[in-house]
Structure formats: C-alpha cells, structure tokens
Amino acid sequence: MKRSxxxxxxxxxxxxxxxxxxxxxxxAAPTAVAAPVAAATAPExxxxxxxxxxxxxxxxxxxxxGAPIKGLRASVFPGLFEAMVGDDVxxxxxxxxxxxxxxxxxxxxxxxxxxxxxxxxxxIDVKQLPLGDAIKVVHGKGERVMYVxxxxxCPFCTRLEQTLADTDNVxxxxxxxxxxxxxxxxxxxxxxIWCAKDRKAAWHDAVLRKKFDANxxxxxxxxxxxxxxxxxxxxxxxxxxxxxxxxxxxxxxxxKEQLEARLNAVQVKLAAK
Length: 273
Hints:
By secondary structure, the chain is an alpha+beta fold. It folds into 2 domains: 5-121, no CATH class; 126-271, Glutaredoxin. It is 34% helix and 20% strand. The strands form 4 sheets. The chain has a 5-stranded mixed β-sheet with strand order 8-10-9-12-13. A 4-stranded antiparallel β-sheet has the order 2-3-4-5. Strands 1-11 form a two-stranded antiparallel sheet. Helix 5 runs antiparallel to helix 6. The longest helix is centred in the last third of the chain and has 16 residues, at 256-271.
C-alpha cells in the first residue's frame, strides 16, 4: 500500500518516542493535516512591521486565552505567520481564520524546521538542572553531554540506550521520568532503581535487558516525583526527551548518525563562544 510523504513524516515522529503530547491550549486536537513543505530553495522570510506583529499578537492572545505565546514572526510563506502556542509551533494567517499544527520540512535539506524552531524557543539553562537527581553514565572521555528524561518501560528509551551503548565520548545524565498514563508500573520501578545499591547497573539491567528485581524496594528518599514535576515544567511530553549542552531539547530516539552530528555541532558551538 502506498503512503503519502506527510503520513510517513508523521509516522516517523510518532514512532520515535512514547508520546503524551497535547494540542495547544484553547485548540481542538488536530486531525492529520498536511503541513506545508518548503520549496527546494528555501524562500527568504518576509519583513513585517512592528505594528502588524502587535496586531497579530493581539489576535493570538484573544484566540488562545491564557496560553503562553512566544516567538511570533512571519513564516517563510508570504502572508502566513508562525508562533509557539503552549507546546506547539503553529502556522496561521493574520486573522487566524485557519491554522496548522504540524511539521514544516525544508525540502532541500529535509530538515524539520518546526522541531528546530521549537527547540530554539524552549531552550533551557542546563546549569540549573539538579544533576544529583540523575543517574550519571560516562562513555569514554565524556566530553559531550546530554540530559535525558527517560521512562524505564518506554521501548524508545531502550532504543536510545542501545544507541548510547555504542556511542563514545559522551556523559549522560538520566532523569527518571515515568509517564504514568502509558506505563503505570514505571514510577515504582524507577523508584526501586534509584534505591538500588548500584543505580547505574540496576538502570541498565532494567532498560536494556528488561531484568528488574521485583524484591527491590523503592521506599528510600528519591527524586522521582520531583523529576516528573521538573520535566513537565520544562515542557517534556514524551520519552526519551533530552537536552543538549546548549539547552535545546530533542524528543525521540534519533538514529546514531543524527545524535553524533547534533552532539558535535553543540560542542563546536560552545567552543566558539
């Protein structure tokens, strides 16, 4: 059976993570809508006057009352705008008669521009993360760093761990982030993993080999509930989701070559500062 490009792109995103994502506040959950696809040569972004942006901002605030709105700017498509509303980047006309929730792909490079923009607008200060609440794993020299919010029962978290097992020169801070609606047993498992004598070994046994000591108690002082609250505050909606050293978040178990490229790009970026 043939599948459309849009369907394949949507499937690729959904199949990379255990997803608990919600639509923008004030909006109905979107059906499968074909997001616009960029031309082979990406057009320049139109210039818009501050007065017009202020007008569109007011329209957004009226339509999505109470939802956080940021990053409003003209889209690469003439006459359209883009902004992050809640957790989602949307594309819309100036009167908000219609809007699209979906992925904008730059055809020339097949780059997901929506994901790129979302990561830019939601970047965090990684220095504020409570590293003592994570299970630290160092591969090789560990010069590159990533901060992973992960669920022990999520198969895509297992996939990411398999990739990391074959990745050199990276330090990984694993924050225990069970998604109760998808994996109701994960929270207690991750509390027990935290309380184990060797947390790193218990974590790898459970997530990589699906070996879990049912007799291990999770009644020690642990940060799991606090980590869930932290992840939600930071906008984590799927596992695995991870932040790179520049604070940008990536959702999903991306292929090794993509992970290597992003880790290296951030390392070069930070070294140039």
